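Repro:
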Amino acid sequence: MKILGLDYGDRRIGVAVSDELGITARGLATIVRRGLKRDMDELEQMIVACGAEKIVIGFPVRLDGTTGIQCEKVDRFIRVLEKRFTLPVERWDESLSTWEAEEILSEALVNRKKRKEVVDRLAASIILQSYLNKHKRSMRSE
């Protein structure tokens, strides 16, 4: 089953996709936000093109475990996703995923302009890979 991973932001949405076996995640695209309808249209094209059967979206829980304004924004976006698509949508803790993506790109000596273009898709990959890794472990222990 292919899963679409999202890193939702006010300006951009990073998108990643898993392989068929749910083992690896790879960055797919960065959607530059241009209005909800356009954003949903772009997501729909990606869902159809890759055959995704589920969406995992980063949920920005604070380091102390509480939720805030960003979580509320993600919850509103999830309601739109669920209304538009018939796919299950699952929240996944995205703590420090963007920071981790920035670190990876910085260590790889990617220049700032290029980093801005790929950081959201890399963060989406990190979120989705974390989700896949956790579910692989839980499937092995069953």
